[in-house]
Amino acid sequence: MPTPARVIHYPGGRDIAASRDFYVDTLGFRVVMTDPVLCLDSPGNPSAQLILLQPGAEQPRPGFGVDLGTPAAVDAAHAEALRRGLRIEYPLTDEPWGVHRFFLEDPGGTIVNILAHNG
After folding, report:
1. What average pLDDT does the segment 25-44 reach?
2. Is 63 strand, coil or helix?
3. CA of 70: how far to CAs of 29, 76, 103, in Å?
């Protein structure tokens, strides 16, 4: 069974620039990635992350992400999700920005991005 390495929150927002300024200037986050999403982390704890999605950037839009630490753990979770008959909302994919992931719908209807960084 995989062990989650971290959970990543995807706050909503219509004004990404204003949200970036708020999280950076008010709460002390730093910008660590701007493309294809705006990723912020804590300088003191890089696993504390927020990812700000442009409206319409992800379809379907995940509620949050679960980093399983390794691509093999993502593959195992994908196999288990299929075995359980869970709905896969985005196929198992190696993204150009170095993430191995898929989206599934949990039993409560939330879309979850299951991921790990390649290499």
Report:
1. 90
2. coil
3. 25, 10, 16
pLDDT, residue 109, reads 92
**Average confidence (pLDDT) over 88-117:** 94
What φ, ψ does residue 47 adopt, rounded to 5°? Answer: -80, -10
Nearest residue to 117 via CA among 58, 65, 57, 79: 65
d(CA 102, CA 80): 13
Query: Is beta strand 111-117 parallel, antiparallel or unpaired with respect to 64-67?
Result: parallel
Residue 12 has phi, psi (to 5 degrees) of: -75, 170
Copy the structure tokens of residue 114: 């299951």
pLDDT 10s digits, 10-30: 887 778 889 999 999 999 999
Measured between alpha carbons, how far is 37 from 99 in angstroms, rounded to an integer? 12
Residue 6's alpha-carbon distances to 15, 95, 119, in angstroms, are: 26, 19, 17
